[in-house]
Amino acid sequence: MAVGKGIREAVRERASGLCEYCHASEEWQFVRFTIDHVIPQSKGGGDDLENLALSCRNCNERRGNRCEAADPQTGSEIAIFNPREDRWNDHFCWDESGELILPRSDKGRATIALLDLNDEFHHATCQKVRKRDVEDGYHPPACDAIVGHGGAPAVDGSRERAGE
Ligand SMILES: [Zn+2]
Hints:
The chain is α+β, with helices and mostly antiparallel strands. The chain contains five helices and six strands. The radius of gyration is 15 Å and the shape is globular.
């Protein structure tokens, strides 16, 4: 049931201390990040390294045990971002300000909506934190794509939501 300490530390190291969904850095948080089961335990997922991901509390709680979410542009239920199978930069990039995660795929768009990666429906706290972190020079992570800086353009309508 519980993931052992050695495995937890291996998950942290592999993730370079970043939430594998929203790419917040654990280094600057009061609360330690959680260990997410990519395939939930309730769906038979195990405690092995290949089924685990580092996740901030927001992303873990908002995800729950879901593996699919509605793409806000089409309404179709599709698989969400899988940090063990998918590359972050294939599905997400930062906007020019570094405050917003933009989708580069349908999967990215559905994941942003499910996990509310830009906190648009939870007081936008993370946007404020990202703004400060950009000013302080440690955000976005160096490995991340930024729109217009060598990355492919983001999918159009990134901020559109069903019903908005
Ligand atoms: Zn997160």
